[in-house]
Amino acid sequence: MAGESMGVEAPLAEGLSQAEKWLNSNSDLLIQYGVNIISALLILFIGNIIVKAVAGSISKVLEKKNMDKAVVEFVHGLVRYLLFIIVLIAALGRVGVQTASVVAVIGAAGLAVGLALQGSLSNFAAGVLIVAFRPFKSGDYVEVGGVAGSVEAIQIFQTVLKTPDNKMVVVPNSGVIGGPITNYSRHSTRRIDLVIGVSYKADLKQTKQVIRETLEKDPRILKDPDMTIGVLALADSSVNFVVRPWVKTADYWNVYFDSMQAIKEALDENGIEIPFPQMDVHLNKVED
Hints:
It is a multi-pass membrane protein. GO terms for molecular function: mechanosensitive monoatomic ion channel activity. Homoheptamer. The protein is about 55% helix and about 15% strand. The chain is α+β, with helices and mostly antiparallel strands. The longest helix has about 40 residues, at about 25-65.
């Protein structure tokens, strides 16, 4: 048993001796690698802090210049991603990776990813166009990509909207640029379009006068430009008036709802009937 124990310990001791010799001969190299790895981690840590600080400073400068919030967020995200890539390349270079090779690999990978993600790149390019031409800004009520809502943010790949019923809708930037953009908040005034139908028995001049007097009582309706009231169509069951007053954009929906109610009440008070679709049925008796 003692011989067997001696046989096992001999190779183990020899292995430990070789490991010790290797550590002694390569200690400088191991220390260098350790220092490089720690340095790379420090570069990533400190670099990330600096990137956040620089991106935040740029955002503050843009905000002081009264830049739109959506534009500020877009530039902040873009600067942060670009600077972090630079920090990452510097960290890899510290551990011995050739930065030229890294840039080449990133370029090749970028090309491959770009071909695979053409939609994402088109969204990015569309985001740049939105920021450059600014068809809308943060807080505007717009209709884009078949969706209507207030602009919450313009991000690198998508635009975020909040609908009137408090839903968040994310629209790809390519969908925003690729279709019509309706900005309801761009101008300070808007025109309300109402269609009011009255009976064929109604006095048209009286009806027009009643509608005008009713709307003129509302101080939110602008005097300039003047409202338009006229006969729009002779429909199947009614004579349809078009009523188009102008209001401030912020008052649009409140005036719209109030005007509909006020016109209905005024017509009722003046005995002007608002008809509804009717059908006359004639019965003919057939004698055998």
